[in-house]
Amino acid sequence: MAVATGWLGSWQLSRAHEKLAAHQAMLDREQLAPWSAAQLLAALAQDPALAQTQAYHPVQLRGRWLADATVYLENRQMHGKPGFYVYTPLQLAGSGQVLAVQRGWAARDFSDRTRLPQLAQPEGEIVLRGRIAGEPGRLFEFADAPDAKGAGQIRQNLTIAAYAADYSLDLLPLTVVQTDAADDGLLRDWPAPDSGVDMHYGYAFQWFGLCALVVVLYVWFQLIRRLGGRRR
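Below the sequence we write its predicted structure tokens.
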């Protein structure tokens, strides 16, 4: 038991070190020169898992918004206030490819929970700076959320596949989080990325603590108590 719990504690520490290395690599990518749309598409052709392997790599894209396909993910917070994460597809200039962009955060109207925020939707070609991301982050659900076709603009969670099916779009298998300033009324104070190592450190402490407890109990009952009984 001591060997098993000790090994589990060491395994949790190794997982923490792996996540720290991945987190540092992500922070390093954030400082790289931004990819153009052509570079992004070329990298995606070589690596279909680009959203995971190149997360946080900056991009600078030209295209136009497909404003009619805007969706709002509810119960997202910024500065401690609940609201929406706003997603709009961007049709890339030149290629015609479409990707989903997490444009920013908008406050919710609690007097009418179905009222959507009024967004400035620039027409024509725009230039967008952002960073590569994966699927939209999901919140806990007690039951399956209406992610699929016909779910409406306000949603709890969203997948790229459901988004594509709902609006008949051929979306790229990644998203982009917009980071540059834009006169559209949205906030973009995105939280810093979390390495997620605290959970592994907590589990490691528990396993090592259990390992120490097993050793102490063994020494007490199998050695000290037995030696004391023999002397008596």
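Strands lie at 58-65, 71-78, 81-92, 98-107, 126-133, 154-155, 171-178.
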